[in-house]
Structures are given as structure tokens and as C-alpha cells.
């Protein structure tokens, strides 16, 4: 087996390679703050390896405690990086207390030769266990989290086995137990585990980057709801389903939106769009797809909703928007929407035809005075007439429930 000085050099080289990888990733993806924390964690481990490798044959207290302190700090930075990646706060105060307590306990127990190992193992294992526990939450069981937590579990288990052997020596149960070779194997296993959990972090990072790219590709930048591309995908899927699948489509826009832009500026117009999207979203289910098609034009896809049910939802949306004015620079700007409704009764129909029919219904609402909704006739109706519900008011305003 290689001596510990050689193994410590391997530790430094391995962590230097991690520094290189995370340094390049942090440079390439500068918004990925977690990469910078994992880079700092690897750098701390390098500093710890340097300090420990210079501790001498019998170990110098400063080198031993400082070296292990840097390594433990690196493990806490790994935990902070994981939290940062998934959008949680980095607990700096908690890390400071835990790290300070670990260094203090290591310094106090330095002269307990066999008792030192269990203490140092516990101090190193705590941040690793915290990281693994955080990663394997039910809401976060992706591949990268599983790989990282598995690598951490292997490293902690290997360390704990050696710590258990040292406890047997300290307690006198196995005073003649020889652990030198086992400790060397433990360090090699721990190095392998470190490679695995860093690889898991790497997968987590790229999964997050991919998710962000998909979000940018499918989300409207201004309002945060779906964009035309994402809505088209959902609409095509619904139109491609087997006959018998009911759904409804609502096409609407803000009434007199151009006047808001002209009178109050484009910033007010943007605020109106965001406000309307937020108000409408509160009226919907999670399965419903609300999208901004462009300008002030929105579209809503309602899964398993008949025409009659769609009118109730449309009425609720019209009322909610009208009853919730936009507060803009001390002004109350009243907003209203006009909606066109079309429903599929399970008959195969193209997305283009559905949108065209909804647009016809929307035009009818505007013709009747805006601030309301109209329902297009059956998709197979060749007359293309607008069918008005009996309870639709002549003024075009929504019926109050």
C-alpha cells in the first residue's frame, strides 16, 4: 500500500483536477453560482491536503487541525453549492458555527491519537450527510442528485468503518487492532467517492442549465406564462388525440391596449400585460395552458372542458380582469378583455382551424362592444356563424355570477 504522504499528494492532485473542471464551468456559465461554490470547495480541499501533507511523521497540531478544517470547509461549500443550485438560501451563519465548532473540537482532542480519528470523521461526515440528505428529498430525486448522494454515502460509510475500528482501540475492546492498511484503503475509497459525487454535481448543474434553456424557449419573457411555441405544441397534441377528447380554446386580448401605450408609455403597457396574465392565471387550474401569442393577444387551452364550462371560465376571467384595476404610478388603470371561445367535441380538427374560429368569435365580441365573450358554433358547422349564448348581454359585458 502507498504511504500516506503519497496518498495526500493524490488527494491534492485530484482536487486540483476538480478545481480545473469547476473553474472552467464557472467561467463558461457565469450565472451558475453553484459552480463557483464547488470550485471554492475543491480549492479548500487542496489547501487542506497541502497542510496535512506537511504535518510531519507524528503530526503537527497546526497543520493537522488547519488541514482538516479546510477540508471540512470545502465539504460545507459543497452543501452550499447544492442549495444554491436549487434556489435555496446559503446558510452562512450556520456554516460558520458548525465549522468553528468542528475546528475547536479537533484542536481539543488533538493529543488523543486513536480518539482523534472518530472526532475528525464525525466533523467531516456532518456536512457530507447534510448534502446527501438535501439532495435526496422526494422533490429532487433526479439522476445527478442520486449519483452525488450515492458517492457521498460510500465515502461516509468508508470513513465510519475506520472510525469504528479506532473506537474499538480507544475503548480497549480491540487494543491490538492494526488499522494502517485499512486506513489507506479508506482514503482511496474516499477519493473514488469524491470523484463520484463531483460527477453527480456536474450532472445536476447541466440538468439545471438544460431546464433553464427549455424555460427560455417555452416561456414568455415578459409575463412568465407560456409562449406561442409552447402553446402550439400543446394545441397540436390535443388536436392529434383520438376522437372523443373534449377541450376548449379561448383567444382574447386586452381592450384598447394601444391607448394605454400611447397615453402612459410602453412601460405601462408591459405592466398591463403582466398584470392581466397574473389575474387570469389565478382563475385557472394547473392543467390549463395560458400563453401569450404576441402583443396583447393571449390564448388559453382548457383540457376536458366543454363549451358550456368554457363560458363559465370566460365569464370569470372577464369579471376578474375588470374588477382588478392596474395600479400604475399612482393611477388606477381599468382593464377589460374580449374573448373568443371555440370547443372541440372530439371531432378531428386542425389547430389552424381552431385558432381561426376562435379569432372569428373574438372579432364578434369586439363588434358587440368588447368586455365580454362570444362562442363559435360547432367545429363542423360550415356556415361559420357566430353562436351567441342566450345570456350574453347585448352590451358585451360579462354576466355577474
Write structural notes for this entry.
The protein is 62% helix and 11% strand. With 401 residues, the chain is of the alpha+beta class. The protein folds into 2 domains: 4-218, Rhopdopsin 7-helix transmembrane proteins (Up-down Bundle), CATH 1.20.1070; 226-387, 2-Layer Sandwich (Alpha-Beta Plaits), CATH 3.30.70. Strands 1-3-4-2-7-8-9 form a 7-stranded mixed beta sheet, with helices on both faces. The chain has a two-stranded antiparallel ribbon with strand order 5-6. β5 and β6 (331-333) form a beta hairpin. The radius of gyration is 32 Å and the shape is elongated. The model is unreliable at 378-401 (pLDDT under 50).
Helices and strands, in order, run as: HHHHHHHEHEHHEEHEEEHEE
Output the strand order for the largest sheet: 1-3-4-2-7-8-9
Structural class: alpha+beta
Largest sheet features:
7 strands, mixed
Give the end-to-end Cα distance, rounded to a whole number of Å. 81 Å
Compute the average pLDDT. 85
The top level CATH class name of the largest domain: Mainly Alpha
Q: What coarse outline follows from CA principal-axis ratios? A: elongated
The amount of beta strand, in percent, is 5-15%
Low-confidence stretches: 378-401
Percent helix: 55-70%
Strand tally, please? 9
Q: What fold name stands as the CATH topology of the largest domain?
A: Rhopdopsin 7-helix transmembrane proteins
Architecture of the largest domain, according to CATH?
Answer: Up-down Bundle
Number of helices: 12
Rounded radius of gyration (Å) = 32 Å
How many structural domains?
Answer: 2
Amino acid at each position: 500500500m502507498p504511504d500516506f504522504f503519497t496518498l495526500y499528494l493524490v488527494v491534492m492532485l485530484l482536487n486540483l483536477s476538480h478545481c480545473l473542471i469547476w473553474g472552467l464551468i464557472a467561467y463558461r456559465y457565469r450565472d451558475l453560482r453553484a459552480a463557483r461554490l464547488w470550485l471554492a470547495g475543491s480549492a479548500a480541499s487542496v489547501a487542506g491536503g497541502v497542510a496535512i501533507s506537511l504535518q510531519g511523521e507524528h503530526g503537527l497540531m497546526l497543520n493537522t487541525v488547519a488541514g482538516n478544517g479546510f477540508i471540512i470547509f470545502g465539504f460545507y461549500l459543497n452543501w452550499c453549492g447544492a442549495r444554491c443550485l436549487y434556489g435555496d438560501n446559503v446558510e452562512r451563519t450556520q456554516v460558520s458555527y458548525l465549522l468553528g465548532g468542528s475546528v475547536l473540537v479537533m484542536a481539543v482532542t488533538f493529543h488523543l491519537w486513536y480518539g482523534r480519528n472518530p472526532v475528525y470523521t464525525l466533523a467531516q461526515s456532518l456536512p457530507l450527510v447534510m448534502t446527501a440528505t438535501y439532495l435526496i428529498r422526494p422533490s429532487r430525486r433526479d439522476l445527478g442528485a442520486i449519483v452525488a448522494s450515492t458517492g457521498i454515502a460510500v465515502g461516509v460509510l468508508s470513513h465510519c468503518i475506520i472510525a469504528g475500528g479506532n473506537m474499538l482501540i480507544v475503548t480497549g475492546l480491540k487494543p491490538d487492532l492494526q488499522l494502517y492498511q485499512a486506513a489507506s484503503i479508506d482514503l482511496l475509497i474516499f477519493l473514488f467517492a469524491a470523484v463520484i459525487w463531483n460527477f453527480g454535481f456536474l450532472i445536476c448543474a447541466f440538468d439545471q442549465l438544460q431546464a433553464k434553456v427549455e424555460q427560455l424557449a417555452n416561456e414568455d419573457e415578459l409575463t412568465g406564462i407560456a409562449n406561442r411555441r409552447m402553446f402550439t405544441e400543446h394545441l397540436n397534441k390535443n388536436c392529434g388525440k383520438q376522437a372523443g377528447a373534449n377541450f376548449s380554446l379561448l383567444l382574447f386580448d386586452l381592450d384598447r391596449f394601444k391607448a394605454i401605450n400611447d397615453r402612459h408609455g410602453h412601460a405601462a403597457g408591459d405592466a398591463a400585460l403582466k398584470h392581466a396574465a397574473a389575474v387570469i392565471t389565478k382563475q385557472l387550474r394547473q392543467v390549463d395552458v395560458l400563453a401569450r401569442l404576441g402583443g396583447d393577444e393571449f390564448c388559453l387551452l382548457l383540457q376536458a372542458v366543454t363549451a358550456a364550462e368554457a363560458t363559465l371560465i370566460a365569464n370569470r376571467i372577464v369579471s376578474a380582469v375588470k374588477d382588478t384595476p392596474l395600479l400604475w404610478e399612482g393611477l388606477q388603470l381599468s382593464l377589460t378583455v374580449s374573448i373568443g371561445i371555440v370547443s372541440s367535441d372530439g371531432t378531428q380538427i386542425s389547430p389552424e382551424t381552431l385558432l381561426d374560429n376562435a379569432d372569428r368569435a373574438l372579432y364578434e365580441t369586439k363588434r358587440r362592444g368588447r368586455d365580454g365573450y362570444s362562442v363559435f358554433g360547432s367545429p363542423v358547422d360550415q356556415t361559420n356563424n357566430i353562436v351567441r349564448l342566450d345570456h350574453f348581454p347585448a352590451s358585451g359585458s360579462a354576466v355577474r355570477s
